[in-house]
Design goal:
two-stranded antiparallel ribbon, disordered N terminus, transmembrane helix, Alpha-Beta Plaits, Protein MgtC, alpha+beta
Length: 241
């Protein structure tokens, strides 16, 4: 209520800037403290700096050219924070980590942008929403993660692999693609890996991100009976967030 009833109109411009920075600092601290507590890559200081920086740049744009300048600055802040957020995203094999922290930094910039635009109440609302997303939703996330789920309902990367002899690589590749497409599983990529001098693996990556396990089992069983095929199998790796 204090922020809602408080008016910036009668304050001199330097005081408005200082107040905006103070609000961005305090609200950024709330967001950053939660990230720091959970030992995330971008913690307290990073969240505060993002909020304060966004507030300063938006305030500067408004001071120089009015609301139009503030609008342009907000657009630049949004894109600029995207590059900063990319720095905390790490890819480990098929798994991706840091997306939530990057999104939190992006929201910290929104908090700062509201503060720099003389909208403290809106900045407070965004802060409360971000904290709710990162704390109140965690029990729901854990509950969903514990629910049993069928293999066909998961989103993953699927590979079908056949092992053959070097002289049969071409026919094995053609047969693999033919059987998969007949089962309505188009191939997005084919990789050939040599295993010594007497064996070659032909690995097909499927376009589909969800499959019926029984159908792939049937395909690999059929492939394994084909002439020139020593072994056939399929694997999946769930993508992480």
């Amino acid at each position: 209520m204090i922020l809602a009833s408080f008016s910036y109109v009668d304050l001199p411009e330097p005081a408005k800037s200082a107040l905006g920075l103070l609000i961005a600092f305090c609200l950024g601290t709330l967001i950053g403290a939660e990230r720091q507590y959970r030992q995330r890559t971008a913690g307290l200081r990073t969240a505060v700096l993002v909020a304060v920086g966004a507030s300063a740049f938006v305030d500067l744009g408004m001071r120089l050219t009015g609301p139009e300048g503030g609008t342009r600055t907000v657009a630049y802040v949004i894109s600029g924070i995207g590059f900063l957020g990319a720095g905390v995203i790490m890819k480990e094999g098929m798994n991706v980590r840091g997306l939530n922290t990057a999104a939190t930094l992006w929201c910290s910039a929104a908090v700062g942008a509201f503060a720099g635009s003389d909208m403290p109440l809106e900045a407070l609302f965004v802060t409360a929403t971000v904290l709710a997303c990162n704390t109140a939703l965690r029990p729901l996330v854990k509950l969903i993660d514990r629910l049993p789920i069928r293999e066909s309902d998961t989103e993953a990367t699927y590979e079908v692999q056949v092992t053959t002899v070097p002289g049969e690589t071409g026919p094995a590749q053609d047969l693999l693609i033919e059987r998969l497409e007949a089962a309505n599983y188009p191939v997005s990529a084919i990789e050939i890996e040599e295993r010594g001098e007497d064996a070659v693996d032909v690995i097909a990556t499927l376009t589909a991100s969800a499959v019926e396990p029984d159908e792939l089992d049937a395909v690999t069983a059929e492939l394994q009976k084909a002439p020139g095929i020593r072994h056939a199998t399929w694997t999946s790796q769930t993508t992480g967030d």
